[in-house]
Amino acid sequence: MEEYTHVFKTLSDPTRLRIFRLLLDAGKELCVCELVDSLEEPQYNVSKHVTAMRAAGLLKSRKEGRWVYYSPRVADGEFLELLSLAVAAIPERHVKHDRAKLRKRLKLREGGKCLTGVRKEHLLGKVSS
Amino acid sequence: MEEYTHVFKTLSDPTRLRIFRLLLDAGKELCVCELVDSLEEPQYNVSKHVTAMRAAGLLKSRKEGRWVYYSPRVADGEFLELLSLAVAAIPERHVKHDRAKLRKRLKLREGGKCLTGVRKEHLLGKVSS
DNA sequence: TGCTTAGTTGCGCATAGACGCATATATAAT
DNA sequence: ATTATATATGCGTCTATGCGCAACTAAGCA
Hints:
- The structure is a homodimer.
- The first copy, chain A, is mainly alpha-helical.
- Chain A has a single domain (2-124), classed as Winged helix-like DNA-binding domain superfamily/Winged helix DNA-binding domain (Arc Repressor Mutant, subunit A, Orthogonal Bundle).
- Helices cover 55% and strands 11% of the residues of chain A.
- The first copy, chain A, has a three-stranded antiparallel β-sheet with strand order 1-3-2.
- In chain A, helix 3 (32-39) packs across helix 4.
- Chain A starts with a helix and ends in a 5-residue tail after the last helix.
- Chains A and B meet through helix 1, helix 2 and helix 5 of A and helix 1, helix 2 and helix 5 of B.
- The structure holds a DNA duplex.
């Protein structure tokens, strides 16, 4: 069962759960700096968390230049699929703030690609939605 | 999100995950001693774990005489429902042993009720199925 | 009124994990 | 080459948690 308890342990941290939900909602791969600006958590923490999530089989990563894009790895078997549905069913009010931050941050993309690093919240402006 | 991370943390322990799955599969409430004999874990540990799971909203309990029966509390919202489906989707081979033990143990019931405490595995015989 | 039994709980220990800080790696730009 | 930037990682610390043991509660029975 350790394979499965490991997945649950990975989702038992607030930052990691927020990351997973944000990636599920985004519908596209996100790079670390976009996650940092959306969650307003330190870069080294986000990096550690996504690394752990990848090890647990929850995320996959793709490197492009200096950037590393992460996305949910919902492939093998019903378990992960149903688990993702459960996470996606967490009521919206819990993820509203992160999603609004992400929306603003994604406007900095050009040609669908991330071209800048962490821009901190004061450069992104307050969340209005 | 703490409400949800708490649920994941609760399922991140092997014994607790086994308890949850066993209760989902059983389709009926089980008392602590039946869980102890099925899982072959110390009674005080099982007791602590089900208490934690109840606090996390995963189980409900019902006291009848000296016995306390536990069952999944899959009531409010899609989240728990989908999460239960995910746990139920964990491949059978991981839960086979526990289920076989439970089958044997349930034979000690009379009139659908548990009438004895922990009976240890040597009184239950080896799992044949 | 005790005794037995099913279950719970408090304590101490040992381990695991999350954070902050500093530093390292790797790729690109000048 | 050197510098800047995106991401990763090693280390020390602090907290959380699972376990074993022992004591406790509560319900039934002699």
